[in-house]
């Protein structure tokens, strides 16, 4: 969801601690609830998702609006808005077509490495190749100072991340049972990274954990880049249809070389030579990209 900044107040202005009553409106629904005093945009979004997650189309963009007494109508949530007294907010789907440009900069990007675990090695097609590409992406992230978030699906039964993947410097390495990587701990880690706009996502399986993660991320207003040569499944048919579906939702399906060169952007970048050397060390053509 994306909140648009707007002038004007409306709503909440008194001091106090504890929780504050808020009426959350979405479509024909209206549910009274509460949020901590001083809650801002992110907490309001989390509350909307907890109340209406099963009704919200996660592919859409949204605006959060506040009911302003002075105008007797809703206005776009003012920039820097914090809840301080009882108020009424609503989540409004945008009707306009949103164009995804796919620009990447190191300062606004985070890498997600999903479930690259030992037990998947014999089952996932081209697993050796996506390990090699994933390791190259993580090396690039370290060179460019890009935060990395790693998950492991039920590691007690499926093992840890494969030894070839160097997780040195990862911001978060987290076990999970949920298929999506979007866990409360991951959302908290994202909130600690200022200005995050884009997620570069890779791992397994394309049609399960990758797909569900990508859909949840775009539902939260983040731009998602899926690295096709670092993403696979047990079945190439599952992989192919998942990538096609995700591309239709506005998620960017791309390659590791495109990602790394877009992040440096210029031959004069101080890390260009090191990134170029990573690319030159690419694994032999595996045929995985021919099956996108």
TrEMBL record:
Signal peptide: none annotated. CDD domains: YcaC_related. Pfam families: Isochorismatase (PF00857). InterPro entries: Isochorismatase-like_dom, Isochorismatase-like_sf, Isochorismatase_domain. Belongs to the isochorismatase family. This is Isochorismatase domain-containing protein 1. Gene3D superfamilies: Isochorismatase-like. Residues 109-257 form the Isochorismatase-like domain.
């Amino acid at each position: 969801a994306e909140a648009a900044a707007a002038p004007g107040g409306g709503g909440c202005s008194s001091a106090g601690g504890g929780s504050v009553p808020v009426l959350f409106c979405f479509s024909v629904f209206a549910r009274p609830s509460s949020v901590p005093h001083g809650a801002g945009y992110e907490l309001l979004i989390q509350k909307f998702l907890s109340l209406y997650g099963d009704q919200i189309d996660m592919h859409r963009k949204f605006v959060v609006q506040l009911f302003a007494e002075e105008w007797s109508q809703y206005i776009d949530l003012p920039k820097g808005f914090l809840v301080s007294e009882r108020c009424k907010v609503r989540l409004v789907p945008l009707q306009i077509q949103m164009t995804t440009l796919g620009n990447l900069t190191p300062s606004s990007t985070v890498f997600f490495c999903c479930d690259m675990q030992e037990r998947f090695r014999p089952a996932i097609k081209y697993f050796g190749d996506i390990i090699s590409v994933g390791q190259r992406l993580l090396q690039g992230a370290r060179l460019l100072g890009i935060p990395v978030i790693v998950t492991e699906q039920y590691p007690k039964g499926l093992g840890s991340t494969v030894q070839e993947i160097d997780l040195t410097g990862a911001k978060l390495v987290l076990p999970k049972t949920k298929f999506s990587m979007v866990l409360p701990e991951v959302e908290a880690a994202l909130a600690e990274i200022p200005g995050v706009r884009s997620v570069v996502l890779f791992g397994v399986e394309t049609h399960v954990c990758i797909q569900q993660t990508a859909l949840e991320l775009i539902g939260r207003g983040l731009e998602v880049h899926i690295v096709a040569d670092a993403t696979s499944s047990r079945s190439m048919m599952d992989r192919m249809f998942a990538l096609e579906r995700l591309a239709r939702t506005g998620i960017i399906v791309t390659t590791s070389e495109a990602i790394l060169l877009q992040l440096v952007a210029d031959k004069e970048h101080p890390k260009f030579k090191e990134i170029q050397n990573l690319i030159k060390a690419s694994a032999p053509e595996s045929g995985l990209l021919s099956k996108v």
